[in-house]
Amino acid sequence: MVPIPGVQAASLRAVIYARSLGFDETTAVFFAGEDADAERVRNDWSRYGIDVPLEVVEDPFRDIGEPLRAYLAKITSDPATVAVVVMPELVVHGLDRLLHNHRALYLKRLLLFEPRVILASVPYQLR
Question: Domain limits at 52?
Fold first, then answer.
């Protein structure tokens, strides 16, 4: 699965990488805080013709921690299954680090000790 913050270059790069791994199923997941956000991402996803399924998960409190863990728990409920989370990660330099990448660090910390979850980061450099 690829948790995406929207349809952007970093997300698309992570989706391409996830597809290259050759798993049977690859899914992009968007955690929507509002219906308008979900509709915007669905429209962008179909407009760009991305051939990976997109799932939209409601996240009314804008904290993707619990919805993400619940989503992964459904996948890993079978002891023979492992979930691979391919996460887009912005790489920024200088003071821009204060503005970007908090989500990636949060997800890394959140998923570090999750059983049967493998986390891979796909860097995307902002110039």
Answer: 2-125
